[in-house]
């Protein structure tokens, strides 16, 4: 059963700001089985752990064709920060 994001997140919902954030939000929601993921939602609050970080990064790589290190998500656990790290890493 899909978890309601509001039941597990402390942050007020802020929608993804661009296409990269939309892709990341969709993948994270799919892997962690939550209804939606906002820009300031913590991967950990949503139930994320190291194995789910690996799954998320593998799916993002397949969808976007760029290398995504799971450590980036583990260290930058908010969606907006993770997206920024991907931008920096892809540059």
From TrEMBL:
InterPro entries: ACP-like_sf (IPR036736), PP-bd_ACP (IPR009081)
Gene3D superfamilies: ACP-like
Pfam family of the protein (one): PP-binding
Segments forming domain Carrier: 15-90
PANTHER family referenced in this protein's UniProt entry, alphabetically: FATTY ACID SYNTHASE (PTHR45527:SF1), NONRIBOSOMAL PEPTIDE SYNTHETASE (PTHR45527)
Protein name listed in UniProt: Phosphopantetheine-binding protein
Annotated source species: Streptomyces andamanensis
